[in-house]
Amino acid sequence: MSKCKLCNRKGLFFKTNKYGLCEPCTQTLVMTLERDKEIFDDSIELINISKNIDTKLSRIEVIEEIGERLLKYEKKKIKTVDPKPSKLLKSIPSLREDTIVRHYKKYFKSEIKKIKDYKTSKTRIKKFQEYYNQIEEHKNYLKKPKALDKYLSKINDLKDKEL
Ligand SMILES: [Zn+2]
């Protein structure tokens, strides 16, 4: 007698395939995987090309959600993606860290330039402060938060010059 690993239905004439799933569960899984693959690929692309750190970080969250969604299959020993969802989830913190560090490496200078272009000193100070706060917040995601300290001290220098 076979039993579906997902819905737990079973019976004498109940059929499961080589993955141990019944037909409706297989179809649902295939559809889920197709959709998740699309979302995953889109997200990776955006993480690589977007200039907006919030967009990148929210896309990393999306990938994390996919990993969590697929983890329930892994727990039932149903193969879905390679690397396994649990492995994908484990890689999220370092993906987040790399993304943040690379972002500032690439865009810090141009962001500073943008802020310097504001007309009044008051606005510039405000913008410097906002940027400072953003970097501070992103430090929380890092195992090595000191990696962003040089940007913070640079902003402080620039802000001091405005005073
Ligand atoms: Zn089923």
Give an overview of the whole structure.
The chain has 163 residues and is mostly helical. It has five helices and two strands, in the order ββααααα. The protein has a two-stranded antiparallel ribbon with strand order 1-2. It has one domain. It is 71% helix and 2% strand. The termini are far apart. The protein has helices at 23-49, 53-75, 85-116, 121-139, 149-162, and strands at 2-3, 10-11. The radius of gyration is 23 Å and the shape is rod-shaped. Zinc ion (ZN) binds at residues 4, 6-7, 9, 21-22, 24-25. Residues 4, 6-7, 9, 21-22, 24-25 line the site of zinc ion.
From the structure above, extract its key features.
single chain, mainly alpha, binds zinc ion, about 70% helix, about 160 residues
Write the layout of secondary structure elements.
Elements: E1 2-3, E2 10-11, H1 23-49, H2 53-75, H3 85-116, H4 121-139, H5 149-162
Antiparallel strand pairs: 1-2
Helix pairs in contact: 1-2, 2-3, 3-4, 4-5
The structure holds zinc ion.
The site of zinc ion has 8 residues, from helix 1.
